[in-house]
Amino acid sequence: MTDIRITGIPKEAGFGDYVALLKPRVMSLVVFTALVGLLVAPVTVHPMIALTGILFIALGAGASGALNMWWDEDIDRVMKRTRNRPVPSGTVAPGEALGIGLALSGIAVVMLGLATNLFAAGLLAFTIFFYAVVYSMWLKRTTPQNIVIGGAAGAFPPMIGWAVATGGVSVESLFMFALIFMWTPPHFWSLALFMKSDYSDAGVPMLTVTHGRPVTRTHVLAYSLLLAPLAVAGAFTGIGGPLYLATTLALNGWLLVGAVRIWRRDEAEAEADRYRVEKGFFRFSLYYLFLHFGAILAEAALKPYGLGGW
């Protein structure tokens, strides 16, 4: 479709704009963690069923992204980080984003149920609802705990992958959920620390806006202190092992060092070096999650050779 931007010049939406509408970077994390959940489950899944399941989980994640972008058009237009997204930039109309999000949601849930099982489909439907309604429409604009509670939406994918294989949940899938859930607050609060005025300009009650950056720095440290032992404990579940233990000890040592460095800083120091430590912690947190799930996957891959697990 063609929309008129602030300049008055029509811009035709291309394939890349519709891909961006689905938030592909977020989708990549969803796909990876869901795939790990599926592959490490103690049930062998036919490759075509596994591929189909991951495809529709990815489609559901994309649907959530489109619905979020439709609802957040007003605040995305204000924030520097988001103003060039397809909806706030005027490339894709809000109504079109809503229609795409609803259509993809229905397709993803129904097809996942037909291809795998109803439990996995129901969990996907709840995840889309939680992200689009509970987080985007309610929590994000009303409470500084938006990221803490809303983090559940991003934590469900490995549980969905596990459910595709097993039709249920387990201690292991709950651990993977908890790992992402506890990782989310320090990850996003470190982002908020160096985004400066974006959230206040948009009226989003992020912790940095409602309680200030010193309190946010303390919260980053507190949640990191809670996250580290949880992550290490995963080594002693059915999906852990010595490789995972070595990986998590190294990553969480690094995590805690970074969190302490953030906690000890004041705004004058952070401003002087352009929030270098905060940006570094944010980037590291991305690797932190991918490497934890990579280690879980590696443990499962080594088990047939008698090398993975305890």
From TrEMBL:
CDD domains: PT_UbiA_Cox10. Keywords: Cell membrane, Heme biosynthesis, Membrane, Transferase, Transmembrane, Transmembrane helix. It is a multi-pass membrane protein. Its main location: membrane. Its EC number is 2.5.1.141. Carbon 2 of the heme B porphyrin ring is defined according to the Fischer nomenclature. Interacts with CtaA. Belongs to the UbiA prenyltransferase family. Protoheme IX farnesyltransferase subfamily. This is Protoheme IX farnesyltransferase. It comes from Cereibacter johrii.
